Amino acid sequence: MEVGIVGKPNVGKSTFFKALTMIDAEIANYPFTTIKPNVGMAAVRAPCPCRELGVLCHPKNSVCVDGQRFIPVKAIDVAGLVPGAHEGKGLGNQFMDDLRMADALIHVVDISGRTNEKGEPATDHDPESDIRFLVDEIDQWFYGILKKNWHKITSKTKYNNKELLKEITEQLSGLEIKEYHVKEAIDSAGLAEKTEWSDGELLAFARALRDSSKPVVLAGNKIDLDAKKNYERLKDKYDITPVCAEAELALRQAHNAKVIKYLPGDIDFQILKEDLGEKQKAALNFIKTGILQKYGGTGVQKCINSAVYDVLKLIVVYPVENETRYMDSKGNILPDARLLPEGSTAIDLAYKIHTDIGDRFIGAIDCRTKKKIGRESVLKDGDVIKILTTR
């Protein structure tokens, strides 16, 4: 699973990415700073069962801090998009290609309106136009691919008895688009009963397909730069999170330097170093009162959590081998946190762990209730599960 960090140049994407991953991405105040996509590991946050179960966990594939589990997710910082990217403007072709593997997108928008559509310094630019332009670019990108190959697709369905759903899916497989994405888009565009599509209907399908296969989380960055008016105007029309990526980066760097204690996603921090300079004190005080308390956090952790939990509809499940001590065969307590789609079953978890485990599956145990559950039992977020197998 991959989450793409996207947007036009100079909106703070690389700062957002660095804060999210603490990878040293190049950060500068000019367009196309990021020419090749930066790839790093972000983390989604979830309550760890360790405190509820009264155990000290030993995570292997994730990290637990103060009862909060941070589970790795791949993040890609894609270079800035400009209007006309689908036609190759700017570095559009490369940018679109970088997006193709993403399962969800976090669109970083300069909510302060201080950069124009090309990412150049400006005053009073309307960030709503940036919200619209990015999805329009992806829509046109999908539409262009479909339009170019539409005759071939429809010819196969007419003369070779091929199914339209499968032909479209095959044509778009390189974009990580699955058959269920295509079906959802066909239904959403009202085209399920139609065999002949007009150009307008093809564009409507492309829009629905983008919404299904590349869902977008909006990050209203630079909220600290006199942006409250724009945010208040747009928040009811769009599901947009107020973000200050610079504040999140500063907090994570200060935490790493042991100046403060801060957990990503928290709305407060603890100062550990007593001999801070006046500038440091003032900066931390502004972050606390002007960002964390005012907006309920910096918004960075909220965005990645929203992409994974709210948009992609994933849950966290903890597989173990000992249902009473919640450990694996090596004595690691609550060792792994697995991200699974909502509605996943016990057998899905078994195959997620290993194909051989799935093939030898005979049942599972809900470690909280100690009751046996079957292969089709639907798992819940936070479940601790033991898989039973044949020897």
Could you characterize what this model shows?
- It is a single chain.
- With 391 residues, this protein is an alpha/beta fold.
- The chain folds into three domains: 2-126 and 215-306, 3-Layer(aba) Sandwich (Rossmann fold), CATH 3.40.50; 136-209, Helicase, Ruva Protein, domain 3, CATH 1.10.8.470; 315-389, Ubiquitin-like (UB roll).
- It has 13 helices and 14 strands.
- The chain has helices at 13-21, 50-53, 92-99, 127-159, 164-171, 179-188, 199-213, 228-234, 245-256, 278-295, 300-311, 346-353, 355-359; strands at 2-6, 38-47, 63-65, 68-77, 104-110, 216-221, 240-242, 260-261, 270-271, 314-320, 338-341, 361-366, 371-373, 384-389.
- Strands 1, 2, 3, 4, 5, 6 and 7 form a seven-stranded mixed sheet that branches. Strands 11-10-14-12-13 form a five-stranded mixed sheet.
- A hairpin with a 4-residue loop joins strand 12 and strand 13 (371-373).
- Helix 4 (127-159) crosses helix 5.
- The chain is flat and about 70 Å long.
- The model has no long low-confidence stretch (mean pLDDT 91).
